[in-house]
Amino acid sequence: MSKRVTVLMGGASAEREVSLRSGAAAASALAEAGYTVATLDIGRDPAELAAKVAASGAEVVFNALHGRFGEDGCVQGVLDLMGMPYTHSGLLASAAAMDKAFARRLFATAGIPVAEGRVVAKGEAPPLPRPYVVKPINEGSSVGVYIVRDDSPLSPLESWPFEANHVLVESFIPGRELTVAVMGDRALGVLEITSERGFYDYEAKYAPGGSRHLTPAPLPEADYAEACRLALAAHQVLGCRGVSRADLRYDDTRPGEAPRLYLLEVNTQPGMTATSLVPEIAAHCGISFPDLVRWMVENATCDG
Prior knowledge:
By secondary structure, the chain is an alpha+beta fold. Helix 1 (16-32) crosses helix 10. It folds into 3 domains: 4-87, Rossmann fold (3-Layer(aba) Sandwich), CATH 3.40.50.20; 97-113 and 174-291, D-amino Acid Aminotransferase, Chain A, domain 1; 117-171, Dna Ligase, domain 1 (2-Layer Sandwich), CATH 3.30.1490. The longest helix has 18 residues, at 221-238. It contains 10 helices and 12 strands.
């Protein structure tokens, strides 16, 4: 008898549509891998979540939620209380990674290079010279991220288009966009992302043709290895488990200077859509999508 897997998808965050796509793709791959699969489109009610998961007959939960409630430790806590094994990271690692300001402090303490930055309250003046990046502290998929360049007419710190009263401001790191997939205790590889939009934003991530992916990333061998090392170190510093994805910048724009790598963030529940990065990196390593989700299910656990 095949193991019963329930896929959580949708949710109430700004990344709902992406989660629905991730969940549908994961469910299809899980069925192909031989599991009995159910899907649940859930909201923000923890009692309803627990009841629906129990009613689904799940033996394992595949968490395909993105953003708040699904990726920030809340759902993980409910599943821990139920004693229900689930994919991806646990409560603590999920909450730490989702809080970009807290995570960057952990990275810096561990010697992982990050961009200069600090948290800014509504009404404060920009703490850094242009160009700088303004991002919500608790969103993913580049939702609400702004690059304020030298010629930008207005800073979002002046118009404040955010729901929260605090945002993270970081120095803009020029160069190239890299991402590294981590699976358990190893980095699978580095992928470079290019986009004609000049910024790997929400549209570039999910719109067809929004970006080009170079796998493996065309880097010097030593820099490729260092990107893998930093991604795995960040995964371990946060206490992640299962699959994660680290986003980095590779600054090779300084004439006469060696390129520099900076960690931007770690995604504890990376996308599983047709244009997603982790499945693409895994495929380059010879790991099919069904084999990838099978590994995730077989390594699922909980802290209950």
